[in-house]
Specification:
Blueprint lengths: L1 H15 L4 H13 L4 H8 L3 H13 L3 E3 L9 E3 L2 H34 L6 E6 L1 H11 L6 E6 L1 H8 L1 H13 L3 E6 L3 H9 L5 E5 L9 E5 L2 E6 L4 E6 L1 H17 L4
Parallel strand pairs: 4-5, 5-6
Antiparallel strand pairs: 1-2, 3-9, 4-7, 7-8, 8-9
Helix pairs in contact: 1-2, 1-5, 2-4, 3-4
């Protein structure tokens, strides 16, 4: 069982590098055989020698092949050690991470191009905690300057959990995105206020006669209305509606207290 799991991990790593099934099979066979003639490899794989050469050439493109220094048709063949596979996999992950970070950094500007032309309004209802949390996590990737939140921070954070909220804050701060929080009074808002300076946030208290549990957030060209009781989130994607809500937020912000 251990050997099966071990080679299973190796197969998965090779496929992650873009190595085909036959190439991966040849790699593992050669790893087990050690330095071998092409005829031996062909026998173990059950394919012709010309096809073995084709598979080897494919592996050479990935830098996973080694030959002896003897004459072309008598020299032995073997693959590079698994440590080479590991290093190549780590290199690929580093490259993908850099690409991911670059795409995240450009996302607000790319989305601005996407929204050009006054496209139709899009409204989507997201039901259940999983979808609720998913759209929350995505929000920080789609704004490059400032997010606006209005409503019951107490109910919102208790629903998504402090762990998710703290991770979201960490990512937001890392990206240099600030937030204005206009929230009803409560224990959690008091905690937010005490951390405002180091978490790139400004929190103000919204005094209302009839407290409510829902909230909304504005970022990019989107507005999300959060309702934790159902639970559900309504995503509205429309530049004009968001502009109107930002103006309403600004008026409420002006008349609200900072503590």
């Amino acid at each position: 069982m251990k050997e099966k799991e071990m080679f299973g991990s190796l197969y998965a790593s090779l496929r992650e590098l873009g190595v085909g099934d036959m190439e991966a099979e040849l790699y593992v066979v050669s790893l087990k055989l050690g330095p071998s003639l092409i005829s031996e490899v062909a026998k173990h794989l059950g394919i012709s020698r010309p096809n073995v050469y084709k598979v080897i050439r494919s592996l050479e493109e990935h830098g996973l092949v080694r030959y002896s220094d003897r004459e072309k048709y008598s020299r032995s063949f073997m693959v590079e050690p698994p440590s080479t596979v590991l290093e190549a996999l780590r290199m690929r992950k580093r490259e993908l991470s850099e690409v991911d970070e670059g795409l995240v950094a450009e996302m607000p500007d790319l989305l601005a191009y996407y929204h050009q032309g006054g496209g139709a309004t899009r409204i989507k209802v997201l039901q259940g905690r999983e979808q609720y949390v998913k759209i929350f996590k995505q929000s920080v990737e789609e704004e490059h300057a400032e997010i606006l939140f209005c409503g019951s921070a107490e109910d919102f954070i208790r629903f998504v959990s402090w762990d998710i909220e703290k991770e979201w804050i960490r990512r937001r701060v890392k990206r240099g995105v600030s937030i204005k929080v206009l929230t009803l009074p409560g224990e959690i808002p008091d905690t937010l206020v005490s951390r405002d300076a180091r978490e790139m946030r400004e929190t103000r208290i919204l005094r209302v006669e009839n407290p409510f549990r829902s909230s909304f957030m504005l970022y990019g060209n989107k507005m999300v209305i959060w309702q934790p009781e159902a639970p559900l989130a309504v995503l509205v994607e429309d530049v004009y509606i968001v502009r109107m809500m930002k103006e309403l937020f600004s008026m409420l912000w002006t008349v609200s207290s900072s503590s």
